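Hi Y.,

Following your request, here is the sequence exactly as I used it, all 259 residues.
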Amino acid sequence: MSLVTHHWCKVYQVMNSPSLTKLFRPFLETRAPLLFLIGSIALGILSSAVYELLTTTFGATPQFLIGLVISAMLIFTFVAFSFQRLLRAYEQRQVVTHNPVAPDQQAEPHAGLILPVGMSNPGAELDIIVWHLRDTTLRHCWLLASPQVMELEKFGNLRQYLLEHNVIPHPVKIDDAMGADQIYTTVMATIKNAQNDNEALPLIADITGGTKVMTVGIVLACLDTHTTVQYWQAPRDRTGNPRMTDASRPMKIMVHRTP
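Below is the corresponding structure, written out as tokens. Let me know if you'd prefer a different format.
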């Protein structure tokens, strides 16, 4: 038995280049007290020298000092505004190029959703739920989670969100998130229970969250029961973490047996 998956997203790495920011950063952060002290002294000396130069050249008259204060405020505002723009541009560069999900490859909203919940916060679980809530389609949601995850505030918030949107949550405990056999058996039982409830059909299983072993167990169970599988595709930053944007979409994963 093997699994064939299609339409995987491509990831391109963005290389870092040396910058003046990296050069001066150690002198401006308190994590290195000695360097921070040296940087503070240097900035103090520089500011005092500039002030003395200006007052010596133009005189320390009230009019000049008022103009100096106003000029300093304007310069600070301009620098702060420019820094915010540069920061936004830098963050946009951190998004790794990805292939958008074509409309015919998107998973449409389903009445029943099997959703593994991972440790990461916030994760993509809420966005997945919101997607299937479109047109009030989602009616039942099985939340697969380990005992540790069930104790997180995140898990309780997801359950409460489902209740507030008239969706029946079904917490499913996975005692061993690294046990593929147990996960397979649990998901098989979950799928059979869902198939006996017409309000939970059609049914789809997500494989975005949880452990890699959970993904394997879910896919194998869906393969044996001909259940639709989806993966939440989102732009990712340089560290591999998903960035929740309007471009995020659920992608249907085609799985089938091969001889």
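The beta strands are 112-116, 140-145, 168-173, 203-206, 228-233, 249-253.

Thanks again,
Q.
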